[in-house]
Hints:
Layout: E1 3-7, E2 10-13, E3 18-25, E4 34-39, E5 46-51, E6 58-60, E7 68-73, E8 78-83, E9 92-98, E10 114-115, E11 119-124
Parallel strand pairs: 2-11
Antiparallel strand pairs: 1-3, 3-8, 4-5, 4-9, 5-6, 7-8, 9-10, 9-11
Amino acid sequence: QVQLVESGGGLVQAGGSLRLSCAASGRTFSSNAMGWFRQAPGKEREFVAAISWSGGNAIYADSVKGRFTISRDNAKNTEYLQMNSLKPEDTAVYYCAATRRYASAISRTYEYDYWGQGTQVTVSS
């Protein structure tokens, strides 16, 4: 059974930083893209960042470009999201995701096959 487990969420003041982790088990994703999405109350789930199988290519939503950095450690079957200069509008539940079909970084929600349970990130002003 494939599981993705996020950790690292919490409450932080505006301008602060958090690092999210997503540990995968039940299947290796070293040949597959992984990503991060978020969902704020009353809004649809939206793309945040994605990384290719090797970590050599990453893509970001315009809203987080320059502030967030996605990375991965294939030996640990884990991906990370370093979030700096956090803003109140970054408040959301953050989900990690993995695809079994693509090696390149992708941004479309429906192309991901596995999802974590989510971790809350709250940024106070």
